[in-house]
Specification:
This protein is of the alpha+beta class. Helices cover about 25% and strands about 30% of the residues. The strands form six sheets. It has a five-stranded mixed β-sheet with strand order 5-4-3-6-10, with helices on both faces. Strands 7-8-9 form a three-stranded antiparallel β-sheet, with no helix packed on it. α3 runs parallel beside α4. The chain is globular. The C terminus is likely disordered.
């Protein structure tokens, strides 16, 4: 769940950057390239900070104590400015939270996951609207949704969630229309991996990790060199039952996804 908050924060910062470029009429990402220090004549760290301060995403804090030279003023996130809504949709239970930009939860509730995606969207929309009414002082910025299935990276459609039995579901568009807020959808294991990278206290030296989620099924999210490994289908970590220790038990065991009898799971 933390990933959804952190992801949205980075999206907001990038959005501020893009709007800054738009005002000055000179794009820096020609051919998909990321900006470099060679572009400093157009945009600098100071200008980005100015933009974020004008929009109250960051505020000035105390003054740093240095042995010599000008004492810099510290900057910090204005964590109370915005509220980010996180949704963790699992097979049995869906959890809805309101979090600040520090990934701290201000409100949380859970309910049984409906059997149809349309009912889930209606239920979420009603609860989100009620949440917004209960927190009128909060500027609601976005919604992040994690789902136990494959998500198309380009369209963010839920391609297939085997334990839910859902195929080709557009949760993003439906929730955006119902709530009037931007929505991001991500695979649950990928979300877990990024949450560990961005929010856990591993230190800056950690740039490779594998996150294994175990609930109704087993999911794997991988980070290499600080980047989420998605693969061409968006589920690079989902190596399949053999890689995760899928052991047949002679045909007498319970049915497990995807509808195979006589197996258990082991990591």
């Amino acid at each position: 769940m933390t990933l959804l908050v952190v992801t949205t924060w980075f999206v907001l910062v990038d959005d501020a950057y893009q709007r800054f470029i738009a005002k000055r009429g000179k794009p820096l990402r020609a051919s998909g390239a990321e900006p470099t220090f060679a572009d400093s004549e157009v945009i600098t760290v100071s200008l980005i900070v100015e933009q974020l301060m004008n929009e109250r995403w960051i505020v000035e804090g105390g003054v740093a104590q240095l042995p010599r030279g000008r004492k810099p003023r510290l900057l910090t996130l204005d964590v109370e400015k915005a509220g980010i809504i996180g949704v963790n949709a699992m097979t049995d239970v869906t959890t809805l939270v309101l979090a600040d930009l520090n990934s701290s939860f201000r409100a949380q509730e859970s309910f049984a996951t409906p059997g149809e995606p349309e009912r889930l969207v209606r239920n979420l929309a009603d609860r989100i609207r009620r949440l917004m009414e209960l927190h009128p002082e909060t500027a609601f910025e976005a919604i992040g949704v994690s789902v136990p299935g494959r998500v198309d990276r380009r369209t963010q459609r839920l391609v297939f969630a085997p334990n839910l039995g859902w195929r080709d579901v557009d949760l993003k568009t439906a929730l955006e229309e119902a709530t009037k807020l931007p929505v991001s959808v991500e695979n649950a294991a990928n979300a877990c991996a990024l949450a560990e990278l961005w929010s856990a206290r591993h230190g800056e030296h950690v740039s490779h990790l594998v996150a294994v989620t175990v609930s109704e099924g087993i999911g794997v999210g991988m980070v290499m060199n600080g980047q989420l490994v998605r693969g061409s289908t968006g589920v690079a970590g989902e190596g399949g039952p053999p890689q995760l220790g899928h052991r047949p038990r002679g045909g007498s065991g319970p049915v497990v996804a995807p509808a195979r009898r006589g197996a258990d799971w082991a990591t």
